[in-house]
Fold these 2 entries.
Entry 1:
Amino acid sequence: MLVLITYDVNTETAAGKKRLRQVAKVCVNYGQRVQNSVFECVMDSALCCTVKHRLEKIIDPEKDSLRFYYLGNNYHSKVEHFGAKPSFDVTDPLIL
């Protein structure tokens, strides 16, 4: 299934900046960054629970926000893209 992970981490302090880097690092390991704090991740429900748990341990729920949008397996018809950064298929292999 496609899961959209979004976050907003308060970076007014050094601790906040560290949390932001940690959250981004976890998300990069599981998906493709499509905007600064937005990742598209193709994963099953077990992996999604693992990622969610890892991220919940990093953020400060008093200051930060973390959202998961579950778009399911038929996400191709649910995602539209306009503007810069051309769209891509998150299931295609990455060529480095």
Entry 2:
Amino acid sequence: MNSKTLLKTYAYFFSVLFLAIILYGCGKENKVADEKQKSDETTANSETKTNGTEKTSPGKELFYLKSSVNNIACADCHSDGTNSNKPLTKFFSNIQGANKRTSTYSGKFTGEEVLKNAGGATICWESYERMKTPLTAEQINSLNEYYGSVATSDTPTDIKYETIALPTRDKTKLKEEQKNVMAITGDPGRGAMEFNNACGSCHGNEAFVKKVPDIFDDFEGNEKSIIYNVRLGDGAMPFFVKDRLTDRMLANIAAFIMQQNKK
């Protein structure tokens, strides 16, 4: 092989080698760019979940946590501003800004006790959701933080309602309530609809709450006992206040229950 041919061979070899290096470098740069883009997208998605509606704070998780005992969550009865489609939320106080209220649970908790009990959640947690262990201080703080995070400029400082169940169960006034409600001629037709809204989540064919007695199965009560349970509550059953469930509505519900019991 003469020197001229040898030079051409070397030139060809180094040209190929140089091209390979260039291609390798470009490929590596593209790979780094792709990885950076994926990293940026992951970070953006993470920020969206943190700053957007997908974020799940510890307090929100507790608020929507279903009890393993009876399948009830705080969010089934109380609104955070996004779950008002649940029928029971119209009967019970919302939790928006509850950490700023001067009193909750119809005066049962006032001042610093509001924060210490997460606006009354300590009672709901044990009495209604039947949780096996009390809320911890950390969980209470998380709930208070969530209450504040969902507050709006229109959120009322305090929510007042009329009840004979709190701060103590007033059985003297209950007799007056029973007399007033029983003096109203209830409409069982409307009562069926109102029963479904106020009672259907726990009682009825489409109830999602577990371990609740079927009130139409060998019901031995009467109108007085229905009014008693609705106005004062009983065990895991919450009380309904007059401002949200009126005497007229209660009379209709009682008429519906008594009608169904005769079938």
